[in-house]
Amino acid sequence: MSNKRVLLLAGDFVEDYEIMVPFQTLLTVGVDVDAVCPDKKSGDQIRTAVHDFEGDQTYSEKPGHYFTLNADFAGADAGNYDGLLIPGGRAPEYLRLNPAVLDLVRAFDQAKKPIAAICHGLQILAAADILSGRTCTAYPACGPEVTLAGATYAEIAIDGAHVDGNLVTAPAWPAHPAFCREFLKLLGVL
């Protein structure tokens, strides 16, 4: 089993699959995962939303599950973790407004620790100003933000993942097999 430890950064209305599937996948292979949310403590719950692709011009959104946090954001320190996981959904649009969130993301990147961001999670990376000169992907609607942050937006299949140094990114939850596999490789678990 792994002795790796990952910080999972989430908030209310995080995408249900994008928090639950990677969280459980990492636990399955023995990676310890601390799921945190600013202004919440271990044992508190966040609400999730299910984003689905049903042929409309954009994804649909439905109520998801409650997800119980297992650590406190206040004590999160990049030095205590081997990697960072940022799921998508609506949470990134407001989490990126929190200076402590951005400082934490920058600390992971400066230490060259693996960072996995999926879907709208790239909004946080763009706001943290760590994408300049990189190539990454995101949900297509976030492509302009990625480009404005100085990165090259990789337009890939919805079930693909892209790796650039310590960064693994993916467009949305259909990419979980590739996204989780590439993150586990960066962590040195696979």
> Which series of helices and strands comes N to C?
EEHEEEEHHEHEHEEEH
CATH H-level superfamily:
Class I glutamine amidotransferase (GATase) domain
Adjacency order of strands in the biggest sheet: 3-1-6-7-11-10
CATH class: Alpha Beta
Number of domains: 1
Q: Which sheet architecture does the biggest sheet show? A: 6 strands, mixed
Mean pLDDT over the full residue set? 97
Please give the share of residues in helix. 25-40%
Structural class: alpha/beta
CATH-assigned fold name: Rossmann fold
Q: What does it look like?
A:
With 190 residues, the protein is an alpha/beta fold. It has one domain (5-187): Rossmann fold. The protein is 28% helix and 25% strand. It has six helices and eleven strands. The chain has helices at 16-28, 91-95, 99-110, 122-127, 143-148, 176-187; strands at 5-9, 14-15, 32-36, 45-52, 60-68, 83-86, 115-118, 135-136, 152-153, 162-164, 167-170. Strands 3-1-6-7-11-10 form a six-stranded mixed beta sheet, with helices on both faces. Strand 4 and strand 5 (60-68) form a beta hairpin. 48% of the residues are buried.
